[in-house]
Amino acid sequence: IGDQSYLDVTANAKVLLEEKYGDAIEVNVIEMGDDEADWEPANRQAAEEGYDIIISGNWQYEAAMLTVAAEYPEIKYLNFDYSSPEGNSLPNVYAITYAAHEIGYLTGVVAAVKSQTGIIGGVVGQNNAGMNQFMAGYIQGAADVNPEIKVIITYVGSYSDPATAKEQTIGMLNAGADMVWGCAGGSGNGVFEAAAEHEGVWALGVDTDQYVSMAAQEKLAKTILTSGLKNVDVGVTNAVTQIIDGTAPFGTAEMLGYKDGAVGLAENDYYKANMTEDELATVKTFTDKVLNGETKVVDELTQPGVFAQLYGQYGLK
To answer: 256 φ, ψ to 5°?
Structure first.
């Protein structure tokens, strides 16, 4: 907890659940740490402590969770952001995920609409299919707005290395980028730091409304035009409600998208104040097409190689 991004918005489900159920439930957050060797023992300890529902998962942690879930069939498990549908077919596991490709698309639309140079960047936590799912959508959204767009993408290799992210962002800005998406968890703070030191550029946040979450660091917050939202806290709250109500479809994996309100853009007052009416209208034109199904966003997870294809076409040479 404390990344001001993905993990914090996930942990906020505790607040939402307590607001919804009050004293009827007890919700605890267990931090497993960064050492992979500790993840299975942490899951096993939670199972032994008598929890009725254990929430864990995502591509990083799901293997440990699923191993332990198989050993405790009486406990209900929620994978809050799965990566493998096949692996989440246990009869006591309900898995949800979010249309990261749609988050990328929406963010790419804003980047291209606002860019004056026609060059945009993406600073990514790690080079894997899940993260490239965001980036393929990002490129598609930007290219739909501006077919001449050029994109620069780099990989930090970590979600907790803002120094490297800052260095990579400065390189992009020097190459002409004026919009950079920090899609890198805690490393994304380095994107905001670089943007704060350069005139005429904007940063874009991810997962939560980072203009709000970075409010204590006003100089950095002011660089964040909008954020691509992954509403994990809402998704977890709704899924736990289904588990409590007895309606959760265990043994299945579901993807939640823009039409479900599970992903979107942070359209706060700061965003609206820094966009013209024409820019807002253009963004809406393109995002509405995703909402009504007219635009199908490419998905690296189901179309392996589509990211490489798009980056080969639109990457800055």
So the answer is: -110, 135
Neighbours of 251 (CB within 10 A): 13
Question: pLDDT tens-digit profile of 156-187?
Answer: 999 999 999 999 999 999 999 999 999 998 99
Longest dimension (CA), the chain: 58
Return d(Cα 212, Cα 202) in angstroms, integer.
16
Residue 224: its pLDDT value, please? Answer: 98
* Cβ-based neighbour number of residue 31 at 10 Å: 11
Kindly list the distances between the CA atom of residue 135 and the CA atoms of 33, 89, 119, 177, 249, in Å, as whole numbers in the listed order.
Answer: 27, 28, 15, 16, 30
The model's pLDDT over 126-150, given as tens digits with 9 standing for 90+, comes to: 999 989 999 999 999 999 999 999 9
Q: How far apart are CA 143 and CA 44, in angstroms?
A: 46
Dihedral of alpha carbons 79, 84, 88, 94, sign: positive
Pairing of strands 263-265, 224-230: antiparallel
> Which tokens is 119 given?
């060059």
Q: Per residue in 201-246, pLDDT tens?
A: 999 999 989 999 999 999 999 999 999 999 999 999 999 999 999 9
Whether 224 and 70 have beta carbons less than 8 Å apart is answered as no
Burial letters 63-76, b for 16+ CB under 10 A, else e: bbbbebbeebeebb
Sheet holding 150-155, edge to edge: 150-155, 119-124, 179-183, 202-207, 224-230, 263-265
Q: Quick: pLDDT tens for 274-287.
A: 999 999 999 999 99
